[in-house]
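DM from R.C. (forwarded with permission)

"hey, sorry to bug you on a friday — could you get me a structure for this? deadline for the figure draft is monday and I only need the backbone to look sensible"
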Amino acid sequence: MRLLLLLAMLAPFTADAGDACRATSGPRLRPLVELYTSEGCNSCPPADRWLARHFTPVTQATALAFHVDYWDGLGWKDRFATPGHTARQYRAMRANGATFVYTPQVLVQGRDYSAWRRGAPDAALAGAATRAPGAAIALAARVSSDFVDVDVDVALEASPSSSTYLAVAYADSGLSSDVKAGENRGERLRHDHVVRGLVTRDVRQPSARYSLRIARPAETGERPSLVAFVQETSSGAVLQTVELSLEDCR
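My reply, with the result:
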């Protein structure tokens, strides 16, 4: 019943969104799968391929690839890497009670997920998609040549903690690099679900609306999308995720 009330709270948002592209989260949790990777790491391409192979917009989970920058001084600079992605991985490290970061690392719902090395996603990931979410999210986007303007409504099942926040990522796929130095020298690497921009806002109220602007990258890929999720930094728990394809948005 509580979840139905949360979804009902978002009805006015979707009703007044006009012709903007929009998406609303469902009654079940959509797990968030994060890959921390680098073009400078020769053990990362298998993880990049795993992410591309097993996650699409129609699967029961959403995938994001965060390229980190701590490999950049070791022979090859990854143009998709940012200090912010590295800082995000360190926050996840602390939430997991770990003492170091590494690549490739896969997280599911903020928790280390080493099972990716065994192939297809296992029952643990499938089971996460059957749980009730801790939040409901609706977003609407308006796309221009340089920016995506986003309105997001968030409704929480419980009062937010001091570390609850909303994140909206711009991601795309079909990106490739001809690596000319470092551990992957001579390789052509392909990347999907790459995070090109990430905007966050603290969530202070059980329900709120946010208006955000995300710059579109100069180098475009394929299948651009927005991924919005609500997460608690201290525990790493992801309360809900929703994905919106931007291919047909104007």
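R.C.: lifesaver. The longest helix spans residues 83-95.
me: no worries. Helices lie at 2-9, 11-15, 45-54, 83-95, 123-128.
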